[in-house]
Amino acid sequence: MVFKNANYNELEFDITPVRIVRKGAVSSDQSAIEMDKGFGDPSKPITDDLKNLETYLNSLSLNQTLLKANIDTVYDIEIDEAQWIADGLIFSSTKIFKDVEILDKLFEEFQKQHPSAAKNSGLISFLSPLRRDGAGGQGDLYDIDAKSFVIYNTNLSSKDSFAHEIGHVLGLKHSFHKYSQTRLNQYNLFVKQVDNRINYMFDNKYPENEITELWKDYKKDYADARGSLKTYYHYFKTKDVFKQATTENMMDYSNEKDAQKNIIQTNNNSRISFWKYQWDIMQ
């Protein structure tokens, strides 16, 4: 079956690469990101070299969905490692990121150091010289304004990791994700309660500043809940769930581990495809 797309130009988007570098270790961190097994030719500057990644995305992965990525100018953000350790984001002994959410923090730094670039449309790809405990990448999923993902040191040479995290930012769950009915019920109840509270305040002519302050408290959790419900009811309610590490899908994993982090399933397939229902979500 052939799917015609009459609005191809509307499906182009920019990716802004942002290197994470530590004060006092800028040169070594830049070198770690441009390691010789990374994006392509280590003799080239990263801006040119990232064209290898762009070619992969547009010819071997995202092109299946009729999306086209344009990789823009590279920026650096300097982080204060000592402060990040104090904030509980980096292990002091091993100097790797902890298993915590850091995308909001990275984007805050990008906004501070490059305010104009942070306003650009498109996605932001943070490139990390450090590893993260338990993950090779991380992408925003449920946030309505999601636009960023990070690839950690261990996966910088894995081009399909970029496609995988882009999939998350554009709304995809893992191919093996199982929804909890209890959690879905909690999301539905939370959304209903917030809607009722806000509507009550509008109907009873509460001061606008009070409504704004209340909304600030609920905005992120509300966006997460609505995003999760939309993803489930629109796209996943009737879809099959596959066993982890058994498919060629971009949103699968290369292996499955038990609680002790022992590999119990190895994926013998290369990650090469997005499925048709995933195209619809990403577009």
List the helices and strands and how they pair.
Blueprint (H helix, E strand, L loop, with lengths): L11 E11 L3 H8 L12 H15 L7 E4 L3 E5 L1 H6 L16 H11 L1 H4 L4 E5 L9 E3 L8 E4 L7 H11 L11 H23 L4 H29 L18 E3 L5 E4 L9 H7 L1
Parallel strand pairs: 1-2, 1-3, 1-4, 4-6
Antiparallel strand pairs: 5-6, 7-8
The value of Rg in angstroms is 20 Å
The biggest sheet amounts to: 6 strands, mixed
Rounded to the nearest angstrom, the distance between the terminal CA atoms is 18 Å
Taken as a percent bin, the fraction of beta residues is 5-15%
- Tell how many strands the DSSP assignment holds: 8
Query: At the third CATH level, what is the topology name of the largest domain?
Result: Collagenase (Catalytic Domain)
Number of domains: 2
The CATH C-level name of the largest domain is Alpha Beta
Total count of helical runs of at least 4 residues: 9
Mean pLDDT: 87
- Note the overall shape: globular
- The helicity comes to 40-55%
CATH architecture of the largest domain: 3-Layer(aba) Sandwich
Main structural class: alpha/beta
Report the order of strands and helices.
Answer: EHHEEHHHEEEHHHEEH
Which regions contain 5 or more consecutive residues with pLDDT less than 50? none
GO molecular function: metallopeptidase activity
